[in-house]
Amino acid sequence: METINIDEIGIKEKIKNEVQRFKKFNQIVLNSKDKIEVGEIDIRNYCKYILRNGTDGEKRELLGCLKSRITLKEKQINI
Questions:
Q1: Which of 17, 46, 51, 69 is the most buried (most CB within 10 A)?
Q2: Per-residue CA distances from 25 to 17, 21, 32, 43 (Å)
Q3: Which pTM does this prediction carry?
């Protein structure tokens, strides 16, 4: 993941949407009035998290934001 070129603008937009979704969840379901603030985001760690724990749709969206060419050959992913 360290050598892959990433469209950081696209990823940041996805993170922003995810944080907004979490805020709404907190307010509606948990009746929380706490203010959630987001600090500096490590995009590469976010990508690793999505690839390990995300849904198939999230993984597909993430792969769409990669600038590097990825190939699958003989059950191995190559960059």
A1: 46
A2: 12, 6, 9, 23
A3: 0.58
CA distances from 78 to 9, 16, 60, 73, 74 (A): 24, 30, 17, 8, 10
pLDDT tens-digit readout, 8-60: 677 777 777 887 888 888 888 877 777 767 677 777 788 888 888 989 988 88
Domain boundaries, the chain: 8-78
Give the number of other CB atoms < 10 A from CB of residue 19.
Answer: 14
